[in-house]
Amino acid sequence: MSNQIISNSIWKQNAGLVQILGMCPVLVVSSNIVNGVSLGLATSLVMLVSGAAIAAIRQFVPNELRSPIFILIIAALVTVVDLLFNAYAHGLYVVLGIFIPLITTNCIVLARAEAFASKNSVWDSALDGFFMGIGLTLVLAVLGGMRELVGKGTLLSGIDLVFGPTAQAWTIHIIPADMHYQFLLAILPPGAFIGLGLLIAVKTALDKRLEAKAGRLAHAVASH
Residue 102: CB partners within 8 Å, gap ≥ 6? Predict the structure, then answer.
């Protein structure tokens, strides 16, 4: 069961590439790896705890009050995450801005609460929530890396917002900084749409290749 949940969350039902949920943060925050991964991990934490909490109380919640109670739990957790960002990573908090509080209204979080946590055990719900968040985080990381690399010629820019000024040296300059390279299309929202479209196309092609390989293998076994 656990392996199936992880596989579905990371690949088969990936929130960013299959379910196409939570597009606002995916398209706006994914301008670089640091922003994307930071918001993705924050979302994963909220989904993990909210999934476990909702699963624990699901038998005591009347059907007509499910949505407001679920949203109240999610909003409380997002408030905690928002305050932690403000206290311990204020620079990143300023950059991410409204998108941290908007985790409350993210379709992925409430959708998994309704579709999974309200019907399954605490452990399975926590696992599903966390890995759904991790699946989205991976999409944000890859998309952010693509946009940052093409748009600015760097990787891990802004890492100092998480680990302090000394981490500026961790930024990888694929194109030398003195060249002042910039490709605005990749950094702006159109670049996010193009990048996400490419990722969806790659995943679809891989799925078709795997299905064809499985079909050939099944045919070979049947013929023997």
Answer: 24, 25
